[in-house]
Every structure is written in structure tokens, then in C-alpha cells.
Specification:
Elements lengths: L3 E4 L5 H10 L4 E4 L7 H5 L3 E2 L3 H7 L2 E4 L4 H9 L13 E4 L5 H12 L4 E4 L2 E2 L1 H7 L2 E6 L2 H14 E8 L3 H29 L4 H8 L7 H12 L8 H18 L4 H15 L10 H9 L16
Parallel strand pairs: 1-2, 1-4, 2-3, 4-5, 5-6, 8-9
Antiparallel strand pairs: 7-8
The structure holds NADP nicotinamide-adenine-dinucleotide phosphate.
Length: about 300
Amino acid sequence: MEKIGFIGLGIMGQPMALNLCKAGYSLWVYARRAEMMQSLIAAGATPCNSAQSVAEQTDIIFTMVADTPDVEQVILGEKGIIHGATAGKLVIDMSTIAASTTRMIAAKLAEQQIHLLDAPVSGGERGAIDGTLSIMVGGKVEQFERALSLLHVLGKNIVHIGDHGAGQIAKSCNQVVISQTLTAVGEALILAKAAGVDPANVRQALLGGFAYSRILELHGQRMLDHDFTPGFKIKLHQKDLRIVMQIAHELGIALPGIALTTQYFNTLVGAGQGELDSAALILAQEQLSAISLITDKKDTYTRKI
Ligand code: NAP
């Protein structure tokens, strides 16, 4: 059995690494804050003091960190994976980052015959805990096949999209749908509330029809409760949309729906709310219409609907 490394033990990485432990794999882990490794150590994983050290001791190394520069740092930076890995080892980056950087990293690793798969995910913290993530994979088919049994521990719907970076492009497409659904769910709940109809009942009714989505189910409820415990942080969602808009800019295509949602996230991050769950998008929508889902105080203006 190949030895497994895992780097980045945040909201997603922690349960994913735990699932690999539970499936019987031997794990070597690294998190820059030592306390983040405690639950993995308790589950039998070996702690390391750098990404390089993880790579020295393992065959397949997962990374699940925040943003594009973070992936660059843990793979190519000082004490990064590239300094510990040898020919034949495989790096699987499951973070959501820019596809162009994925291709650059793949080329750098290939100079030392080290392989890379980009394998970003969808399904949130719940999917990470339950091992039901959707995984979008870019890279060489033979490395995809090598990783498949491991990926099956982490997810249910695992699709090889294409060569290096293709997984990240698929993830951007995923975020195009997710972020606009989030915006649409918030707008629907605001409309219900403003019209004097119980938004909770509206959500319940919509769940049974074509308006159903996992976002309506999970995030709709979080919006109604104003429960913004992350989950998926606004600052990370904003980062994903920045990646999407960069691609749109490079390709010369219009994604006006993403531009709209980006404005909401920008104001929330600007207001110091970037650590909240992305369902907190409703706060910006409430402000725009001067209405709150959790109080009966409608607004300070006369509304005519
Ligand atoms: P998170 O809770 O913020 O965890 C990120 C982890 O990466 C943190 O533990 C952080 O360490 C570590 N990290 C960041 N930069 C690092 C660096 N340069 N060196 C070493 N460690 C570093 O974020 P998350 O929600 O798990 O998300 C991780 C990735 O998955 C992101 O790319 C995100 O977009 C993607 N994603 C998230 C979700 C979701 O629902 N949360 C869903 C799909 C995809 P510290 O703790 O020291 O900061």
C-alpha cells in the first residue's frame, strides 16, 4: 500500500485526512499550526514539521490549502514538497486555485519526474466529512487511475476532466453555478419576506419543485437562521470568483452573473465578514433592500410590491 501524505488540515483537509486514516492508509501530515494535527495524530497519523518532510516519507501527497500562492508555497517553496519528493511520486492538489498555476507547477514537478493531479472538490464540509465529495480531476490518465482508490475514499462522483488544469476549470464552472444559485436563493427569500409571506414556508415549497437545489436546502436554511458558522468562508468564495473572472478576462467572455455576486462578496469582505460562511451573502442582499429575514422590522421606507 502506498504511503500517504496530507498537507493543509483546515475545514476540508481535516475530515478528508481522517477518512483516509479510517480507510486504513498510513498517513504523514503537516499543518503550519501544530494544534491542527492533533485529531490526526489521535487517529494514528505521523506529524511532520514541513511539507518537504511529508514528501520525503510518502509516495502520494495531498495538498488542501487556501489559495494559489499557498499551493505554490507548499509545493515549490522553501521546505516545499519538491525538495522532498523523488521521481515517481504523485502530488494531488485538491485546493481550488488558478489553472494556469497548476500547469506551471505540473511542468516544474515534471522536470524531476514527479507527477501532479489537480483534483478540486465540491460538496462542502458535509461532503468532506461524509466522504461524498464530487472530485474534478486534471492530469495524466495513468496517474488518475493510480489515485482512484484513494479518491473513492474522499468522494463519490469522481471525473477525469482532461489534462493538467482541466480539473480547476471544471471547478470554476462549478462556482459559476453555485454562486449564482446562492444569489438566487437569497433573492427569493428576500422577495418572500418583503411580500409578507413566510420565507421558511416558501423554501419548504420550493424544495419539492424545479427550484430544488442543495444550496436552497442547506444555505437557504442558514440564511433563514442567520447561522453563518463556516462552512465555506466568504473570503474563499470571493477568491474562487476572482479566479473565474480572471479566466473570463483572459478568454474575452462575459460572465455578468459572476460580476454581480462578486460585488456582494467584495462588500462583505470589506465589512470584515470574510470569515463567515458564504450563506452570509444574504446580509448584503438584506442591506440592499433594507429588510431582514430574522426580524419582523421590515425597513425604514414604504415598500410597494
Ligand atoms: P481553511 O479552513 O481556511 O483551511 C485551509 C488550510 O490551509 C488552513 O489550515 C491553513 O493553515 C492551510 N494553509 C493555507 N496556506 C498555507 C500555507 N501557505 N502553508 C501551509 N498551510 C497553509 O479552508 P478550507 O475551507 O478547508 O478550504 C481549503 C481549500 O478547499 C480552498 O482552496 C477552498 O477554496 C477549497 N474548498 C473549500 C470548500 C468548503 O466548503 N470549505 C469546498 C470546496 C473547496 P492555517 O490554519 O495555519 O491558516
